[in-house]
Amino acid sequence: MFQSLLAKLSGSHPAEQCWQLIEQGVQVIDVRSPQEYAGGHLPNALNVPLDQLAQWLTQHSDKQTPFVLYCGAGIRAQKGCDILRANGFSCAINGGALKDLLCYQPQSVANG
């Protein structure tokens, strides 16, 4: 099921589609700084700052694992997706900006 949604997504993706993936268990990565992360983040999101992402990936051998990345505006998330793809991870999804994802957060997740 991940693959059908992943196949539809490229570049920056509509928040609703990203939430479908998140609700199905796709790992969410916040590529902002620890200070930005501390100011608010998505539930269950891992904070892996962009400058540490390549090193973090060395701990993950399953290159088919899907990830949704987000940041403040979507630019760092896209750079993060580029880093994942350059390291052989083909299922990197740019979730865009945190504020946009929060606008479309399903009530089931928000109430959690």
Question: How would you characterize the overall build of this protein?
Answer:
The protein has 112 residues and is an alpha/beta fold. The chain has a single domain (2-107), classed as Oxidized Rhodanese, domain 1 (3-Layer(aba) Sandwich). 43% of the residues lie in helices and 15% in strands. It contains 7 helices and 4 strands, in the order H-H-E-H-E-H-E-H-E-H-H. It has a 4-stranded parallel sheet with strand order 2-1-3-4, with helices on both faces. The chain is globular. This is Rhodanese domain protein. Residues 22-109 form the Rhodanese domain. InterPro entries: Rhodanese-like_dom, Rhodanese-like_dom_sf, Thiosulfate_ST/Rhodanese-like. It comes from Shewanella loihica (strain ATCC BAA-1088 / PV-4).
CATH fold type: Oxidized Rhodanese, domain 1
Number of helices: 7
Roughly what fraction of the amino acids lie in strands?
15-25%
Give the class from helix and strand content and strand pairing.
alpha/beta
Please state the average pLDDT score: 87
Order of helix and strand elements from N to C terminus? HHEHEHEHEHH
Ends apart, CA distance between termini: 23 Å
Identify the CATH class: Alpha Beta
**Bulk shape:** globular
Largest sheet: 4 strands, parallel
Q: Using the CA coordinates, give the radius of gyration.
A: 13 Å
